[in-house]
Design brief:
alpha/beta, Rossmann fold, 7 helices, 7 strands, about 40% helix, globular
Length: about 250
């Protein structure tokens, strides 16, 4: 049943074609928002917008490109004049051991996970009114060691630092900034972290053993948390790291 916690709000959600981004876009629309979803692959974006069904616009954009993000927000400005909620969700992950780290691995991770988060928020600011909300999607990897994930973990630690600093930087504008940290969520990004379907299932089983609740999380469970951080329900909350991880990194 549709609710109205985000009634009339305009939201931009990067990485919105699958997983947590798509689930968040659906939840925002159900709560009354108009959403723009971005990604780098137009067919998947179009499928996602069709799946959401209403009040969703797909814009192909690479978050690491300043020009792409300028173009995105120019469209939002032309069509709505403002953006109330920004969800910097687009992320990239590769599993690479320390001896194999090279420029390409580092750049792919940091271009999307850090530079992309910066552009996503920076370019939105001229359109954001008082009462706006920014949600950065980090990871429990920001403070938990994970073997062969060092550059990814470092990038998510940077995202956590950005949330803290921007909560201060934007307080005089009346904009709240919070970090949302998933842990062990069953999304398509899991499938690229192991070489075979069997290895993927083995990896998921290993993650499940680390999670006190005994299962992987669902994208809609992250979406519910994002609705909370985007809405007036969290009006006195800024700068926090909300971990949705089944207890994985909390014990």
């Amino acid at each position: 049943m549709a609710m109205d916690k985000l009634q009339g709000k305009v939201a931009v959600i990067t990485g919105g074609s699958s997983g947590i981004g798509l689930a968040t876009a659906r939840a925002f629309v159900d709560e009354g928002a108009t959403v723009y979803i971005t990604g780098r692959r137009q067919p998947q974006l179009d499928e996602a917008a069709a799946a959401i069904g209403k009040n969703a616009t797909a814009v192909r954009a690479d978050v690491a490109s300043a020009a792409d993000m300028d173009r995105l927000y120019a469209q939002v400005k032309a069509e709505h004049g403002r953006v109330d909620v920004v969800v910097a969700n687009a992320g990239y992950i590769e599993v690479v051991p320390l001896p194999a780290i090279d420029d390409g691995h580092y750049d792919r991770i940091f271009d999307t996970n850090v530079r992309g988060v910066i552009y996503t928020v920076q370019k939105a600011l001229p359109l954001m009114p008082r009462g706006g909300a920014v949600i950065l999607v980090g990871s429990v990897a920001s403070f938990s060691g994970m073997r062969n994930y060092s550059i990814y973990c470092a990038s998510k630690a940077a995202v956590r630092a950005l949330a803290r600093n921007w909560a201060l930087d934007l307080k005089d504008m009346g904009i709240r900034v919070n970090n949302l940290s998933p842990g062990g969520i069953d999304t398509p990004i899991m499938d690229i972290q192991a070489p075979t379907p069997e290895a993927v299932e083995q990896m998921k089983a290993g993650f499940t053993q680390l999670i006190p609740m005994g299962r992987l999380g669902r994208p809609d469970e992250l979406a519910t948390a994002a609705v909370f951080l985007a809405s007036a329900d969290s009006s006195f909350i800024t700068g926090i790291d909300l971990c949705v991880d089944g207890g994985w990194a909390q014990m």
